[in-house]
Amino acid sequence: MARIKTLGNFDFRRILPTISLGIVIGAIDLPAIISFAVLIYSGDLDQFAGMGIGLILFGSLIIQIIIALTSSIPGVIGGPQDSPAAILGLMGMAILAQLSDASPETKFITVTVTVMLTSVLSGIFFLLIGGFKLGRFVRFIPYPVVGGFIAGTGFLLVQGGFGVMIGTTPTINNLGILFTAESLIRWIPSVIFGIALVIGSRRFQHFLTIPILLTATAIIFYSIALLNGQSLAELRAGGWLLGPFPEGSLWRPLDLSLFSLIDWSLIARQASNIAAVALISIVALLLNSNALELIANRDIDLNRELIAAGLANVAGGVAGSSVGYPYLGFSSIPFRMNIHSRLVPLSAAAVTGFILLFGASALSLVPTLIAGGILFFLGISFLMEWLYDAWFQLPRVDYALVLLILAVVATLGFLQGVGTGIVIAILLFVVNYSRIDIVKDALTGSSYQSNTERPLEHRQLIRRLGERIQILRLQGFVFFGTSQGLVQRVRDRIQDANRETMRYLILDFQHVTALDSSAVFSFVRLNQLAEANRFYLVLTDVNKTIKDKLLRTGLTEQEEWIRFADNLDYGMEWCESKMLLEEGGSTIIRAGSLRAQLKNLFPSQEEIERFLAYLEKLEVLEYHTVIRKGDPPDSMYFIDSAELTTRLEISKDKFIRLRTQSGGTMVGEMSLFLKQPRSATVVASKPGLLYRLSLENYNKMMQEDPDLAFHLHQWIGRVLSVRLAENNHTLEALLS
């Protein structure tokens, strides 16, 4: 028997609750869809309200079915949305104002085609964005800008709700109509109903809260009418009920002869609002999809959702619907109940289909105050979220941007609000980002040295004169805002009379992700400062893209005061070597030899000669491999006039430099004493003279002349101590 109840992963025992949930959601959704239709087809279009509601319900049915069948997550419920309906209501008002002397049929068909065209064009826009897989870029719209759009939508919904309540949409110029006796008695009950919906939905999260309030309001309305002795005919004549609607089916195909009455010029004037609908709809669609992804605990394919909504709007728009896409609130209900079935949205769509075919008489019983109150409730909900809740959540600058967009939407229009918000958000981003310090670390030659190991007197001189070398390690995206701050920082360093005159400025680009074209001219200005103040500008670790931009402006090494280096280590080595030459000339260079170091090590010339007797003299050419990684620890080397580079291979034919050593230093001592294979490769980067101490001769020295061995061990101990101290000093400078 259990096999009959299941098929694959579907449990037939859940069919009844699944369908029941869909029917309940469809019944909740239906009044909102009708309210959107009434918002668009109101005022001068009252006599066509029945046909307009039928068109939107028919298009809504198509949108609901297509989204139900094609969404990337089973169970997503879609349909006409409040934001597009609010703007369409505004567009309808503008068109009707221009067609004041036209026939009712001209007004109706022009507004209807505007609705259809907006939905179709929005659908095409969705399809293009989804088809080219560009959905993720819409997420870059700043959060407060989206909030301003939603708040503006809330304002339009409140404004449209009052229009449904009193029959005329209030504006700044005619606010007085709200306070006539006839208007007060119509909008006050609707506002009370809308406020009750707001309070109920915020305090009670159960999905039956709104249906209960709708039912209670209808009971109270008809109870009061019964006590006053008013019949349905009297209520309908007084404008208290929706309708009148034609008997039978609500949906009737449009008379094709009406299309000859369309005023296309007026539709063309609404191009900016049509664009605003498409933009706001795609943002809302993606925001809803992101939220549903979290609620359903499943991945949503944003591009597929765009394509699904695009197909739905093209088909639904041709049928007469306003723009629709997945609902957040309704879709989350089955997901929170762990129901993931396409039967839920299809059952909700069945409710729309039933009312469309058989519900004209039932709709004529809906009080106008409920339709207007629902619009007021939706609008106030948006305004509460972005004017009250946002006050406690957003920074004050972002909150002010929300208010500004709302004010522009209310006074000038939606597209103007959209444009204003994006422009200001960009300006705020530029201002805020320009405050970010692109200097990751600021070092000097006293706190940071290259991996070139030099004789003690060289290192002491570099440490003493290190303030002449300024190192700025840059980071992030460099554009005109942050690069100007860099120029000012360098200028301040030049003018600082309390510090040693800067002779070398190293700008390290290792952590720079990109360089804006406009920022290139800041580096041209730095080059000019270098030439005027006679310091060298050294650019290190510059990737090809950034280097090409700099070269196009003339920043090449053909100029006297600029240099490029592969990385910070090589750039620092160049600065140190040039500073040593400038300070000590050939004398300081000659000091870097083995014999010069031995004079500091041994007390007499006789001991130096005894020590040299244990060494083997070697002449090496450039690129000669002195030590290969993995070789046995059979010797160590003393450098006289050559230059050796210790390097580590990180990939095939790609190396990183660990250390470069010149005259008066040693290499290979660690492996010799630890008796471990060589951990890196040592190559001659410059030709010259080396002295080799083999393991055999080292052991012989230990036995025959322990005094020499003692002095050698002292030397090695000092070298290792200096290396450790320098590494600690550099690490401290980087972390400070």
Task: Report what the structure shows.
The chain has 736 residues and is of the alpha+beta class. It is 60% helix and 13% strand. The strands form 5 sheets. It has a 5-stranded mixed β-sheet, with helices on both faces. Strands 6-15-14-17-12 form a 5-stranded mixed β-sheet, with no helix packed on it. Helix 2 crosses helix 3 (49-70), helix 4 crosses helix 6 and helix 27 (695-704) packs across helix 28 (706-735).
Topology:
Elements: H1 2-5, E1 6-7, E2 10-11, H2 15-40, H3 49-70, E3 78-80, H4 82-98, H5 104-131, H6 143-166, H7 181-203, H8 209-227, H9 232-237, H10 264-268, H11 271-296, H12 302-319, E4 324-326, H13 329-336, H14 343-358, H15 360-363, H16 368-393, H17 396-411, H18 414-434, E5 439-444, E6 452-453, H19 456-464, E7 469-478, H20 480-495, E8 504-515, H21 520-533, E9 536-540, H22 544-552, E10 562-565, H23 568-590, H24 594-601, H25 605-613, E11 616-620, E12 625-627, E13 635-639, E14 643-651, E15 654-661, E16 666-667, H26 669-674, E17 681-686, E18 688-694, H27 695-704, H28 706-735
Parallel strand pairs: 6-15, 7-8, 8-9, 9-10
Antiparallel strand pairs: 1-2, 3-4, 5-7, 11-18, 12-17, 13-16, 13-18, 14-15, 14-17
Helix pairs in contact: 2-3, 2-4, 2-14, 2-16, 3-12, 3-14, 4-5, 4-6, 4-11, 5-11, 5-12, 6-16, 6-17, 6-18, 7-8, 7-16, 16-17, 17-18, 18-20, 20-21, 27-28
